[in-house]
């Protein structure tokens, strides 16, 4: 078991500073995703202040180590271990209530966190969004501001009459402008981006990789050194997913031990989606491997070999985003391996870029 040194510069108080050296026992990272902290904000993207406090007190009392997301990701990419029970906290969008309702609790607990900011409402001084001064204050207590694009667009969609090259130039500008603002206004960029609505395609992900920017989607799962760092998973912790009972299961989950994932692409069509997962060599509880399709129940599962499985939805997705979540109990444990994938079924009028060409 490896030993790592944690410096005070990486941690803003909390139990991981009890010793200069701790044993690194975890090589994966669950990441919690929030949006609003409020009682009158949209249910699907909100936790109440009481729920948020309940989540953080559980983390504190159950021995979880809340770590800085950027530092944790860098360690995993380098094959280094994290503190046992490490977890990271993130927010999407630069909502004012993060500062007003969430930040006081985070500061009380000395928990670091990341806010993915879309900068247009900040620059226009929208009263429902954070100000630069509020962000600077939060930075002093462990907050990191990261990229969520300028205008929060559907990145995979072109505008009316927009060519392929014009669409891609606009998307690149959405990313690059925020990177510049983070450095110029807040002092630095962690080079992390959360895709608005969790949507990205191969071209966008390749662009981020060229810039050495880590990308985050909205599919659920646990990050490890084997993950695709252009499209990392997070666990939603708001709305219907805010119940502490279900959150506990996700927090204790570990990555699905995979060597290859074939999803058939980013888009769903008129046929049921299907994906194939290839497992690392090992003994697993494959008889208890289960997958659920959003809005459909259990998926059809076909083991092609002892290490390869095909998962197929029972029927085609409706328009919009659909997902398949797969779990499998960890051998000799009550925890679960977890993997999820999201597809988009586009309407023609929505203008999704479905091919790498000037034609749509």
UniProtKB/TrEMBL annotation:
It comes from Marinomonas phaeophyticola. Residues 85-360 form the NodB homology domain. Keywords: Signal. InterPro entries: Glyco_hydro/deAcase_b/a-brl, NODB_dom, Polysacch_Deacetylase. Its main location: secreted. It comes from the Bacteria. This is Polysaccharide deacetylase family protein. CDD domains: CE4_DAC_u4_5s. It is found in: Secreted. Pfam families: Polysacc_deac_1 (PF01522).
């Amino acid at each position: 078991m490896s030993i790592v040194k944690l410096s005070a510069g990486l941690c803003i108080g909390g139990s991981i500073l009890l010793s200069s050296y701790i044993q690194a026992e975890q090589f994966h990272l669950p990441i919690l995703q929030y949006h609003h902290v409020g009682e009158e904000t949209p249910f699907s993207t909100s936790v109440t202040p009481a729920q948020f406090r309940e989540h953080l007190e559980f983390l504190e009392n159950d021995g979880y180590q809340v770590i800085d997301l950027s530092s944790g990701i860098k360690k995993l990419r380098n094959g280094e271990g994290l503190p046992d029970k490490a977890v990271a906290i993130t927010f999407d969008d630069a909502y004012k209530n993060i500062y007003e309702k969430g930040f006081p609790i985070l500061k009380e607990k000395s928990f670091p966190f990341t806010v993915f900011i879309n900068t247009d409402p900040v620059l226009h001084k929208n009263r429902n969004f954070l100000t630069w001064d509020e962000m600077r204050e939060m930075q002093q207590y462990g907050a990191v501001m990261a990229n969520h694009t300028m205008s929060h667009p559907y990145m995979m969609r072109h505008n009316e009459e927009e060519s392929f090259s014009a669409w891609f130039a606009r998307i690149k500008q959405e990313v690059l402008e925020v990177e510049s603002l983070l450095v110029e206004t807040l002092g630095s960029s962690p080079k992390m981006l959360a895709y608005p609505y969790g949507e990205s395609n191969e071209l966008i992900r390749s662009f981020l990789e060229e810039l050495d920017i880590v990308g985050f989607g909205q599919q659920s799962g646990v990050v490890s050194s084997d993950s695709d760092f252009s499209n990392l998973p997070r666990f939603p912790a708001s709305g219907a997913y805010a119940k502490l009972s279900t959150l506990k299961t996700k927090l204790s989950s570990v990555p699905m031990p995979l060597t290859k994932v074939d999803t058939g692409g980013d888009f769903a069509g008129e046929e049921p989606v299907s994906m194939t997962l290839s497992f690392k060599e090992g003994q697993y509880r494959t008889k208890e491997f289960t997958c659920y399709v959003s809005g459909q129940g259990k998926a059809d599962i076909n083991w092609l070999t002892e290490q390869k499985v095909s998962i197929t939805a029972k029927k085609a997705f409706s328009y919009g985003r659909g997902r398949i979540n797969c779990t499998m109990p960890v051998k000799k444990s009550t925890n679960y391996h977890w993997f999820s994938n999201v597809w988009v079924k586009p309407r023609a009028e929505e203008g999704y870029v479905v091919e790498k060409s000037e034609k749509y």
